[in-house]
Write a structure and sequence with these properties.
heterodimer, A: 367 residues, alpha/beta, Rossmann fold, CBS-domain, six-stranded mixed beta sheet, 14 helices, 16 strands, 34% helix, B: mainly alpha, MetI-like fold, 0% strand, elongated, MetI-like_sf (chain B)
Chain lengths: 367, 224
């Protein structure tokens, strides 16, 4: 656990970067520091590994004041990922990753073996190991940066806007990768960003800082979206707060109907009589093929011969209410197809079911 | 009897031992200043990169020294280092080399990207280790570029020393001019040029070998 205890950073010219910051970064979780430029988020991060020393207050790492630890020793025990990766241009990728093990005096063979293991872990082709940083794309370099930070298996990881210099598609995949890694490794991560969407996507907890280095709110993302502490936080969260909040409501609560499915092998005549406006055609493998409107069907033949309308799915037990709503909006029927982890249809969430679930969310927002 | 040929090979054959001696003397007087200049430029360049206020005065002083005509400096030095001694040539050339190399070392060190420096700090490098393992290696291409300039200019400047009695291959110019006999002049010019070309080539090879990450980069740029 990392504890900020009344931490202040005031520069000799009088500028206050961080003002009386007190908060706890729980072990094994991702805590995101987010805020506009000048809010002291990077300064706060850098005070943890003593790249900057506080002018007041204390930072405790598992109860020990960090200013009592010699900086190089402290830093070798804390992983650090920087924007633009900060790789050493004169060292091969494998040696870049092995940097901290080398500093800790591991023998070269062991350090390199560990580096290879990490390159694999962050999803990099091992053939890149013998290349130099400039031969890699920005996204690959950033993965190497993450691998390097993890090389000596530090319990704490500091990430300073690590993904802001790459394009949005690469950024999204790096974010997914980080969440996947974190699910395996359970590091204590402090992540700094100016991007509130990134904060909400990655954070177990989000600390919103305002200009002048004061904490505006510390909460989990769902609470932050539902109950912003003040106008600053509300404004910083931006538009679509209500919709974004649905990402944190599990789709499990949706009532599913099992009677709106029909196998693709069925005769047209067998469904023409139904009163339902739309039915999902299910393929032989159990996956959805699309929606049909029984009243528009031809007179004879099987459903396989009928063109089906587009559909959207959400995975029951994994996806959020937002995904379910999205799936519904992708179908002319306005209903969402629920599938299991292997893509087999388990039922249909109708507009009525979605409406009930949304009403429950709205009810929660009231109180 | 026909016209005097430009090069008389028999003269070269007869005087070969003496030419070799002059060549060796030339190499020593050209290269000792470059090596000494580099050794002195490293700490001064480090200081200039670290304390920026030192940089301008240092480079200014060096530029003033660089602007002094070499012949004048040789003559001024004669009472101290002696007539026709190697030291009379080596001392000023060392300053000339420093004038090129100090800015090269400073530029090399400031070419280290800030995010690279920051990440080295954050990873737990001690300041000395960071300098030796990260900053100086990254500075190498820029320093080597300066070293190539310093080496070639040093090789060419040694000849001027012939006017104060110690100029390596430069002696051949004086000799040929005084006797209105072109062969020694041609030999001196050709050997000086070959020496400069070989020294430069060796430095290019050294750069490729020392900084594969940098030569590979320029190759990629050429391809693009």
């Amino acid at each position: 656990m990392i504890t900020f205890d009344g931490v202040t950073k005031r520069y000799p010219d009088g500028t206050v970067a961080v003002d009386d910051l007190s908060l706890e970064v729980p072990t094994g979780e991702i805590t995101v520091f987010v805020g506009p430029s000048g809010c002291g988020k990077t300064t706060s991060l850098r005070m943890i590994n003593r790249m900057i020393d506080p002018s007041g207050g204390r930072i405790l790492l598992d109860g020990v004041d960090v200013t009592t630890i010699d900086p190089p020793t402290l830093r070798r025990g804390i992983g650090y990922v920087i924007q633009q990766a900060g790789l050493f241009p004169h060292r091969k990728i494998v040696d870049n990753v092995a940097t901290v093990p080398y500093l800790l005096g591991w023998d070269k063979k062991k350090a390199r073996a560990r580096a290879m293991e990490l390159l694999e872990r962050v999803g990099l082709d091992l053939r890149l190991a013998e290349r130099y940083p400039f031969q890699l794309s920005g996204g690959q370099q950033q993965r190497v940066g993450v691998a390097r930070a993890l090389a000596a298996d530090p319990p704490v990881l500091l990430m300073d806007e690590p993904f802001s210099a790459v394009d949005p598609i690469v950024r999204a995949s790096l974010q997914e990768e980080l969440l996947r890694l974190q699910a395996e490794l359970n590091k204590t991560i402090v992540f700094v960003t100016h991007d509130i969407d990134e904060a909400i996507k990655l954070g177990d907890r989000v600390a919103v800082l305002r200009v002048g280095g004061r904490l505006a709110q510390l909460a989990d993302p769902a609470t932050l979206l539902a109950e912003p502490a003040d106008d600053f936080v509300r404004e910083f969260l931006g538009r679509d707060r209500g919709i974004r909040r649905l990402s944190f409501v599990p789709g499990d609560g949706l009532r599913l109907r099992g009677d709106l499915t029909v196998p693709v092998s069925a005769e047209v005549s067998s469904v023409r009589g139904t009163a339902e406006a739309w039915l999902v055609v299910v393929g032989d493998d159990g996956g959805p093929l699309g929606w049909i409107a029984p009243k528009d069907l031809p007179d004879s033949g099987t459903l396989a011969e009928v063109p089906a309308a587009p559909y959207g799915t959400f995975v029951r037990g994994r996806d959020s209410l937002r995904s379910a709503l999205d799936a519904a909006l992708l179908s002319p029927s306005g209903n969402a197809v629920a599938v299991d982890g292997s893509g087999r249809v388990v039922g249909v969430a109708t507009r009525e079911a979605l409406d009930e679930a949304l009403a429950r969310v709205a009810d929660g927002a009231r109180g | 009897m026909g016209e005097e040929p430009l090069v008389r090979w028999d003269w070269i054959g007869r005087n070969w031992p003496e030419i070799q001696e002059l060549l060796a003397d030339h190499i020593i007087m050209a290269l000792v200043p470059v090596v000494a200049g580099l050794l002195l430029a490293l700490p001064l360049g480090l200081a200039g990169a670290r304390w920026r206020w030192l940089y301008q005065p240092t480079v200014g002083t060096m530029n003033v020294i660089y602007s002094l005509p070499s012949l004048a400096v040789f003559i001024v030095l004669i009472p101290i280092t002696g007539l026709a001694t190697r030291a009379t040539i080596i001392v000023p050339l060392t300053f000339y080399a420093m004038a090129v190399l100090i800015p090269a070392v400073v530029d090399g060190l400031t070419s280290v990207p800030e995010h690279v420096r920051q990440s080295a700090v954050a990873m737990g490098f001690t300041p000395l280790r960071r300098l030796l393992r990260v900053e100086l290696p990254i500075a190498v291409p820029v320093v080597l570029a300066g070293l190539r300039v310093a080496t070639v200019s040093s090789i060419s400047l040694v000849s001027v020393g012939a006017l104060v009695g110690r100029g390596g291959l430069g002696y051949l110019f004086i000799d040929g001019w005084q006797r209105q006999f072109p062969t020694p002049i041609v030999v001196g010019v050709v050997l000086t040029a070959i020496l400069a070309a070989v020294a430069d080539l060796l430095l290019v090879v050294a750069q490729r070998w020392l900084t594969p990450w940098s030569t590979a980069r320029s190759r990629v740029r050429e391809a693009a």
